[in-house]
Amino acid sequence: MTPGFDNPVLGAQSSFRAMLHALSHPGRIIRLADLPAAPAPLAPAAGAAALAMCDADTLLWHDAGEQAAAWLRFHTGAPWGAPREARFAIATGAPPPLAGFCLGSDEAPQDGATLLLQVAGLEAAAGWLLTGPGIQHETALCVTGLPPGFVAERAALGALFPRGLDIILCADALIAALPRTTSIRERA
Amino acid sequence: MNAALTGYNFGYLDEATKRMIRRALLKAVCIPGHQVPFGAREMPLPYGWGTGGIQVTASVLGPDDVLKVIDQGADDTTNAVSIRRFFNRVAGVATTESTAEATIIQTRHRIPETPLSEGQILVYQVPMPEPLFRLEPRVAESTRLHAMAEYGLMQVKLYEDIARQGEVATSYNHPVMVNHRYLMSPSPIPAFDNPKMHMNAGLQLFGAGREKRIYAVPPYTDVRSLDFEDHPFKPVRAPHACAICGSEESYLDEVITDDQGGRMHVCSDTDYCASRPPV
Amino acid sequence: MYVSVKGGETAIGHAHAWLAEARRGDPALPELTVAQIEEQLALAVDRVMAEGACADRGLAALALKQARGDSTEAAFLLRAYRTTLPRFGYTLPVDTGAMAIQRRISSTYKDLPGGQVLGPTFDYTHRLLDFALAAEGLDPPPPAEAEQGAQRMPQVTEILAQEGLMAPDAPSNAEPPDLTREPLAFPANRALRLQAMARGDEGFLLSLGYSTQRGYGNAHPFVGEIRMGEVSVEIEPPELGFAIDIGDMVVTECQMVNQFVGNAEAPPQFTRGYGLVVGQNERKAMAMALVDRALRAPELGEEATAPAQSPEFVLYHCDNVESTGFVEHLKLPHYVDFQSELEKIRAIRARWFAERTE
Questions:
Q1: For the stretch B149-158, what's the b/e string if a residue is b when 16 or more beta carbons lie within 10 angstroms of its beta carbon?
Q2: Contact residues, C window 306-325, toward B, CB-based 8 Å cutoff
Q3: Is the pLDDT score of A166 beyond 80?
Q4: Do A57 and B20 touch (CB under 8 A)?
Q5: DSSP state, B190?
Q6: Residues 6 or more apart from C147 whose CB is under 8 A from it?
Q7: Shortest Cα distance from A76 to chain B (angstroms)?
Q8: Calpha distance B201→B120 (Å, rounded)
Q9: What is the torsional sign of CA B158, B164, B165, B169?
Q10: Which pLDDT belongs to residue B2?
């Protein structure tokens, strides 16, 4: 079993702050400072986010295999949940249909899941143009390694607001967030 | 841990409680203006005295943060002193009175005059998070109204004010629409401060401990004070200059100087006032 | 002048030093020990323990001493302490049927198995100040040794249920909600309502219960039974697989028997109002049972019109740590809001006068 955070209290705090910052500034690329030794195929950033946020009170879905499952269980105590009921989800490969995750209800939209979606690369470069709360004008984000059709599939959830799915893209030690309020325009 | 008070965790709260609050905070940022219920804990300060703000601050705070606490705009009012001392004891963090130097500012009833910059976090203490509570005290019912974005009640109330008094009667805690979707209580800040919430560079977090709700306004988010085309929202300040720094822009406290009707006006934001040359 | 409105560290320090002196009172008199409070102000300790939601008489006595006898402040001290305690596990449901009875009365049957046990009660005392208590060192004569009923005393409501006259409460193994972890949510089920009332303010519940007797809510209650005594508290650690006793505590239970006219699905029968309080506190257990029954109005198809029948009204306002905090927060500075009110009322007045001089 590989270790979690060097210092569980401070590691959780700094990872949470990075996620808070990322969700406050959608599309901005944030490097996590405290990284646990997450077993492959878990990205270190996804591992840090899960350790910081999950515990016995949060159902967790992931596709990362047995070794990662044991590591996540040991360090978080989070019980396994199917995509439809999980509050946190980690997709190391192509995710299941986004509309199949828990999206909350109109009265309790906060029940919508947070999806940690691993991608090959994140770059502050031409690709997407993001707008919405947290973005002053526009933010450019270039993401590599996403399944085709991702943008359209995610956009279809927009009509359900305030229900929705909040996505944190993870690449190695980097994260960039796509809260449900963010609109993505693809550069032609 | 560098906590000065032994026997307690960093930031007083246990880790499970912090995680629960942090999960609520992340969702609050994702749904601007929506009240997220959370399992508020009893704190060693009374409900109504900032327990929501304290729980939010305690969950956000790290050892590198610099904390500022204000009440009524001032760093040295008794409750601000008490809360600042609490965090100094349970987290050992650095504190400041300077708005610009702070990474986290916990506030009651004011937004500092000095504009926030990116990366700064403003934590509001909130007594009644539900903007509709005077019109609809049943929580189950107001929750339903938010779900449907049904805010006619509030529009009617404001309109009746205008019909009766010629203007909107709320001078503080004037409701705002966040990101064109959620009606939100800005907490009892003077209406003068409302425009500062709009497209603010800082992150605004709101904690209501007794009512067990957390909500947020992300940076650069549209925040409009409720009004009517023929009665646009007007922020009000006392029409005077600060007796200490001469400011004609800042929000003023009125101070009674004698029993003959003597008055003076001084900045409510003590840091702002002190940073300016005295008149 | 301006500086004097600012509080500051010094003022707080001085106030707290004064408080400590006032708490101690005249130093020529011996200081109260926590043990004395626990033994001799036992009902005050019980109240603090119940409203502080922490079953520890020693800590409750300490809180009372620190709070100068202010039971609401003491309950708050205890709550703020309990919330920092780690949670090791959950006890099994307590069996009040197996209680070691100190008091047990029924007002519905003259006699019943186990009998009526008056126990240590103020009932039937004449409320005459006992000036002998003002003198010290007089120990009361020991009471006659009561026969300790070792047998299980059936609850009156069980007896009624055998005849089918008492509407059964549906047994449930569902995980009860936990209001110390999750915020109140509505509709609140009965387990959550009872949980909130068990630590709710005695005075608030007493007044609400009383209101149901005066027509605010349709109550026709009888005290089926009140019992008070020790119950054992057990946990079942998963690694052991069997229950172990981790201690005893005193609880007071009240079961009120209420009329129910019946409806299309259920025949006419009695329904139960239930109160359970940690420690000895009959007044609160009875009030809680009245309010519990009142809150069941919707499930029994009764019209809910009175405050005691509104779950939101009762649950949001029964907690005295919450209510005292919010009422007392009004003494915090509100200069800023008041200033905005001043400017607003001046403007509105100016318009009012202008309109009348035109």
A1: eebebbeebb
A2: 312, 316, 321-322, 324-325
A3: yes
A4: yes
A5: B
A6: none
A7: 11
A8: 8
A9: negative
A10: 42
What are the backbone angles phi and psi of residue C282, rounded to the nearest 5°?
-70, -40
Whether pLDDT at C1 is above 80: no
Give the helix ranges, DSSP H, for C199-334.
Answer: 202-213, 282-295, 311-317, 320-328
Asked if ipTM goes beyond 0.95, one says yes
Nearest Cβ partner of A53 from B23, B37, B148? B23
Does the active-site annotation cover B30?
Answer: no
Per-residue model confidence (pLDDT) at position C3 = 40
Across the interface, of B47, B165, B238, the residue whose CB is closest to C321 is B47
Q: How confident is the model at residue A188 (pLDDT cuts 50, 70, 90)?
A: low
For residue A188, being part of any structural domain is answered with: no
- Note the pLDDT of residue C5: 43
Subunits that touch chain A (at least 3 Cβ pairs < 8 angstroms)? Answer: B
B267 catalytic? Reply is yes
Cα–Cα distances in angstroms (integers) from residue B116 to residues B32, C154, C280, in the given order: 18, 68, 55
**Burial class (CB within 10 angstroms; exposed 0-12, middle 13-18, buried 19+) of B90:** buried
| Identity of the residue numbered B227 | D
Domain boundaries, chain C: 9-82, 96-137+147-318
Q: How many domains does chain A have?
A: 1
Average pLDDT over residues C244-258: 95
B202 is a catalytic site residue: no
Candidates C246, C93, C234, C94; CA nearest to C173 is C93
Cα–Cα distances in angstroms (integers) from residue B163 to residues B12, B166, B231, C132, in the given order:
50, 6, 11, 69
Mutation choice for C interface testing from B35, B42, B162, B251 by most C CBs within 10 A: B42
Looking at the domain assignment, is residue A94 inside a domain? yes
**A12·B31 Cβ contact <8 A:** no
Residues of C in contact with B257 (CB under 8 A): 1
Residue with structure tokens 């972890």? Answer: C181
Cα(B95)–Cα(B66) distance, integer angstroms? 5
Q: Where are the beta strands (DSSP E) in chain C?
A: 100-105, 221-235, 244-258, 271-278
Tell me the average pLDDT across C310-328: 95
**Tens-level pLDDT at each residue, chain B (279 residues):** 344 566 678 888 899 999 999 999 999 999 999 999 999 998 989 988 899 999 999 999 999 999 999 999 999 888 899 999 899 888 889 999 999 999 999 999 999 999 999 999 999 999 999 999 989 999 999 999 999 999 999 999 888 888 887 777 788 999 999 999 999 999 999 999 999 999 999 999 999 999 999 999 999 999 999 998 888 898 888 899 999 999 999 999 999 988 888 899 999 999 999 999 998
Q: Quick one: average pLDDT of C18-40?
A: 96
Give the domain range for residue A31: 8-181
CATH number where A77 lies: 3.40.50.11310
**Active-site position among B33, B50, B202, B207:** B33
Distance from CA of C269 to the nearest CA of B (A): 32
For residue A3, being part of any structural domain is answered with no
Contacts of C356 in chain B (CB under 8 A): none
Top residue of C51, C72, C84 to mutate, by most chain B CBs within 10 Å, is C84
B29 and A23 within 8 Å at the Cβ level: the answer is: yes
Backbone angles phi, psi at B20, to 5 degrees: -60, -45
Q: Phi, psi at residue C317, to the nearest 5°?
A: -120, 5
Assess if residue A151 is contained within a domain.
yes
> Cα Rg for chain C, rounded, in angstroms?
25
Count CB atoms within 10 A of the CB of residue B98: 14
> What tens digit of pLDDT does each residue of C50-76 get?
999 999 999 999 999 999 999 999 999
Whether C106 and B64 have beta carbons less than 8 Å apart is answered as: no
Higher-confidence residue of A101 and B165: namely A101
